[in-house]
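Supplementary notes for students who missed Thursday's class. We covered one full example, reproduced here. Read the sequence, then the structure, then the short commentary at the end.
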Amino acid sequence: MSFFNSINVSASGLTAERLRMDLISENIANANTTRTPSGTPYRRKVAIFREQQPDAFAMALGKASSAYGSGNGVEVAGIEEDQSPFKKEYNPNHPDADADGFVSLPNVEVVNEMINMISASRAYEANVTSIANTKSMAMKALEIGK
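Structure (token representation):
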């Protein structure tokens, strides 16, 4: 694995975790949104990650040089809505209450979102540390030639 490849892998992790943190922030911001443009309460959004697939040229080059087999990084496969049921709360005075006086609230648990935010933040920090360590190793390698 080259220095640039390891930086690219970590950079893809930074991008993916930043998107994950953006979605978590959106979920927290909409934790009390009872009506979206579609007329339903807000549904929690989740990022789906997968390993990056190398392009055909990189795959052929890697096989030819016997260097293929290192990691490719991560990419976002998609953003999906959590299909868990909405929470119900009795509040007959709410404008979105049904005939029985219950309001459907988003399926967002703020405590779980905060835990996910901490996890995403730690993963982001780990990728930053990996880039810093790769840079340090490259600088030390350059010092060997002096």
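Commentary. The chain has one domain: 3-31+45-81+108-144. The helical segments are 3-29, 56-65, 110-144. If anything here is unclear, bring it to office hours.
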